[in-house]
Amino acid sequence: MTSALVLLGYLAGSIPFGVLLTRWLRGVDVRAGGSGNIGATNVTRVAGKKLGAVVLLLDAIKGALPVVLAVRLLPDAPTVHVAVGLAAVLGHIYPVWLKLQGGKGVATALGVLLVLVPQAALAAALVYVAVFAVSRVSSLGSLAAGATAVGTAALTARAVEYAGLSALLFALMLWTHRGNILRLARRTERRF
What we know:
Elements: H1 2-13, H2 17-26, H3 40-47, H4 49-73, H5 78-93, H6 106-116, H7 118-135, H8 138-156, H9 160-176, H10 178-186
Helix pairs in contact: 1-4, 1-5, 2-3, 2-4, 3-4, 4-5, 4-6, 5-6, 5-9, 6-7, 6-9, 7-8, 8-9
């Protein structure tokens, strides 16, 4: 059952909502505009705020639902919950449908943490909004939110495995944002 749940997590995470919705509703490929990313931030740039918000919600849901299922089926198996959540985020970052060229995993990680460590997810969301409101730089907000999630999870997680997952997701976020981090250091990162 564990393998099936992890596979389900990966497949759910790999659904490229940004690509599908911009193609179906706007007739464009989100990868051909803006940063070329498939996530909500670039969808907002290419197709507008409303569609960006829908993609954000769907990307979070595709992280949350497989974890909810794992928690319901195996309530006393935090390692399985972590594996399913990690698989969902990796599915978004490396989707089989897009030759392993996906997004940065922020919204999907948010969905996973909403289920496993809701306090960390909510704190991260608040920090993202605050940092983005001041800086108008989405990547800076995401990185600050990821660091906040790690700290909050360390204090509030019901299982040490969940706190470890938040740290692992932040490490993945640093990896997927490595280009953004260089641009932030050079003060050339794109603003909204």
